[in-house]
Write a structure and sequence with these properties.
Helices cover 22% and strands 33% of the residues. By secondary structure, the chain is α/β, with parallel strands linked by helices. A hairpin with a 2-residue loop joins strand 17 and strand 18. The longest helix has 19 residues.
């Protein structure tokens, strides 16, 4: 985490910015990444980061954003900048248009530096255009502060380029969950709770993975269903087989249905990032709920779930990647409602699970094919023309969809069974 502080003067408190790059938007080469404003970028050049602004020792502002940067080392031209050969230095001057800039200032014999962090929240949070921004400025920074800050930032981006996210255990409690995302997802699932189906086990890939997971559980064990929804079919099946069941979900509407249908289970409102139990559960399962995390929340969630499992306990994840050639996020429509989240490939989820040796992979299954309707009706193979796309008010036209968004692109359905390592004496 790169941190820089504008020093306190007289009765004023110090102001700090902490910037933590996490990961690329996707790792597969040539993957297209789209944001809610209909713009596109190459995912391998777009990085997730979180930002914390602190006044004194109290957090004023915390958010997530994305920035574009190449593989070039951040400090390549730093010495020329510090020597005054370059008046400024920065990154992120391309879509999605968030940026970080440093400026060298002089007056007589004095030299100091200014930092400006310009976050384009329009791109990430679904506003049209690029005029909705959050701007942070720090002044009166000395050269040693700036050097240390750039060094830390360079190390963090280098780790992100190579696929190594920060250790989620370094994220303070309360910062794994983005409050905006929690509220918008809760609202969406409250609306759709009455019509939400229970056909998960109609897909053999998920049913078979569930049975394999259950086979690893002790009789009558305590299990956690993450994103339990209304409880069918997972909670229902676990109760029938004699397990102690706890379910968590962010939607009170879903939980109301679950409590009515399955009074023998325990339910509470919560997210995987908010799980606080230690070594409590013999098994944990999550079907599709991790689709409502971003890459930062995902890693914090997996750490929380690992801690909640007993040593040797098993975690089952069932998920999908709707288009192996493209990603969208973090705001998108699901059943007519806006939701927050990102899709991950099986490889990316496996990498997140095995990072810092939190889990070992027991089994992985996947099915990759071009999606077809269940009734067998053919899918039209033509790509929509730009004129067929919805055009927001005030916009003359939208760019054509890249080939990666063709409905010829396959979907990946997958499951991963992972185990928390046993204690050495076991």
């Amino acid at each position: 985490m790169a941190k820089i502080t504008q020093p306190a003067e007289d009765d004023y408190l110090p102001i700090s910015l902490e910037i933590r790059p996490w990961l690329k938007a996707a790792y597969a080469p040539d993957t297209i990444f789209s944001l809610p404003d209909n713009g596109f970028a190459m995912a391998q050049s777009v990085y997730w980061l979180d930002v914390t602004c602190t006044v004194g020792d109290e957090v004023l502002f915390y958010t997530r954003n994305l920035v574009h940067t190449s593989g070039e080392m951040l400090t390549t031209h730093a010495e020329a900048f510090f020597a005054g050969e370059w008046p400024g230095w920065g990154l992120g001057d391309m879509y999605p248009d968030s940026s970080l800039a440093l400026t060298r200032k002089t007056y007589e014999q004095s030299v100091w530096y200014e930092l400006e962090l310009n976050l384009n929240v329009s791109r990430v949070f679904g506003a049209l255009g690029d005029g909705w921004r959050v701007l942070f400025k720090l002044d009166d920074l000395d050269v040693n502060q700036v050097r240390a800050f750039l060094h830390e930032l360079e190390q963090d981006f280098a780790a992100a380029r190579s696929g190594h996210a920060p250790d989620p255990s370094a994220v303070p409690d309360g910062y794994g969950t983005l409050p905006f995302a929690r509220r918008i997802n809760a609202r969406a699932y409250d609306v759709i709770s009455a019509e939400y189906g229970a056909g998960l086990f109609d897909d053999e890939i998920y049913l078979n993975a569930f049975e394999d997971w259950v086979a690893h559980l002790p009789p009558g064990g305590h299990v956690l269903d993450v994103g339990c929804g209304h409880g069918a079919p997972v909670v229902a099946t676990l109760l029938e087989r004699g397990f102690q069941v706890t379910g968590i979900d962010v939607s009170d509407g879903m939980l109301a249905r679950a409590r009515t249908a399955y009074p023998a289970a325990t339910f509470r409102n919560g997210l995987p990032t908010e799980v606080t139990e230690q070594e409590t559960y013999d098994g944990i399962c999550s079907f599709f709920s991790l689709l409502h995390t971003d890459p930062i929340e995902l890693r914090v969630a997996l750490l929380r779930l690992q801690r909640a499992l007993k040593p040797g306990g098993h975690l089952l994840i069932g998920s999908l990647l709707s288009n192996v050639n493209a990603r969208q996020g973090p705001l998108y429509r699901f059943k007519g409602q806006w939701v927050w989240g990102c899709e991950f490939s099986a490889d990316e989820l496996e990498a997140a699970l095995t990072a810092q040796d939190h889990f070992t992979i027991v089994q992985r299954t996947e099915d990759v094919q071009v999606w077809r309707p269940a009734n067998g009706e053919p899918v039209e193979e033509t790509e929509p023309a730009p004129s067929e796309l919805p055009v927001p008010e005030g916009v003359l036209s939208l760019p054509p969809l890249p080939p990666a968004f063709s409905n010829k692109s396959p979907t990946q359905w997958f499951t991963i069974l992972a185990q928390r390592p046993k204690r050495k004496r076991e």
